[in-house]
Design brief:
The chain is an alpha/beta fold. Helices cover 39% and strands 22% of the residues. The protein is elongated. Belongs to the universal stress protein A family.
Length: 287
């Protein structure tokens, strides 16, 4: 389903590694390499036309990182005012009708933390296209290489057992190259031990039913129900299960309808140590 992918690059070493990884994605047919230039507030003179030409030459060189046969690679450079990079990425994604936007968690910033860079964070918050954030701590610990070749090999899919999660899981099943899905439900409600135990029992029954349906469709599936705070449990289980990807619906049952991303999906994407795939509800509705 991810046949046309937009990769937002700032020419950092992390962005280059994302380009290499996406070139190996199953079912990929077309890649659009995009660089967004913004005016330096300290610059007295700015010639965006000349800069775009220079950037397009660099993008042409970046194309060589995608070696997969049969994949068409195009390039695009646009200029914006300071602070509008994410808006430009989202706009191009809509205009080009891409099926996925792929980005590194961080760009050229020297400030390293567990949080996303500003451009990735704003694409996450305001974008309407499915988003893959290739997160890794450094390029020296082989983390990226570990998940690059088979990003869909072992997927953790957190579900709150809502209709929105059901739609996201149905879409996920249509993707090529999926090896195994680990279903996870986090029980975070209950006033007493008895109430929590009842919620856990109900969740186990429902999630096992979902797992059995997936197995009948020929998929390799396991399921877990864990008590705790959703974001913390998802991050912890991703490490315990050593998954190659966390795939999560952009909105859960409790998300505010006017918002484009729920708090759990946002927090997971903003802090997980594994690649995260955000499945947008409005995109899946169209599908």
């Amino acid at each position: 389903m991810f046949e046309k992918v937009l990769i937002a690059t700032d020419f950092s070493k992390h962005a280059k590694k994302v380009i290499e990884c996406i070139g190996e994605m199953p079912g990929l047919k077309e890649v659009l390499l995009l660089n967004v230039i913004s005016r330096d507030p300290l610059a007295r003179v700015w010639d965006p036309v000349s800069e775009i030409k220079d950037i397009e030459k660099k993008l042409e060189e970046e194309k060589n990182a995608i070696k997969s046969p049969g994949v068409t690679v195009n390039v695009k450079a646009v200029s914006v005012l300071e602070g509008e990079v994410a808006s430009a990425i989202n706009k191009v994604a809509m205009e080009e009708n891409v099926s996925l936007v792929a980005m590194g968690a961080r760009g050229r910033s020297l400030i390293m933390s567990t949080l996303l860079g500003s451009s990735s964070r704003n694409v996450l918050r305001f974008g309407r296209t499915h988003l893959l954030i290739m997160r890794y701590k450094t390029l020296d610990d082989n983390t990226m290489e570990k998940y690059c070749a088979r990003v869909f090999a072992r997927i953790l899919f957190p579900t709150d057992l809502s209709q929105t999660s059901e739609v996201a899981l149905s879409f996920l099943k249509s993707l090529k190259g999926i090896g195994e899905i680990v279903l996870l439900n986090v029980v975070s409600k209950g006033e007493t031990d008895e109430e929590i135990e009842a919620n856990v029992a109900l969740a186990k029954e429902r999630i096992e039913e979902i797992a059995q349906n997936l197995k009948m469709a020929g998929m390799q599936v396991s399921s877990k129900v864990v008590v705790g705070q959703p974001t913390e449990v998802i991050r912890s289980e991703a490490e315990k299960e050593d998954v190659s990807l966390i795939a999560i619906s952009s909105q859960g049952a409790s998300a505010i309808k006017k918002g484009r991303i729920g708090s759990t999906a946002y927090d997971v994407a903003n802090s997980a140590s594994r690649p995260v795939l955000i499945l947008r509800q409005e995109k899946m509705a169209a599908y």
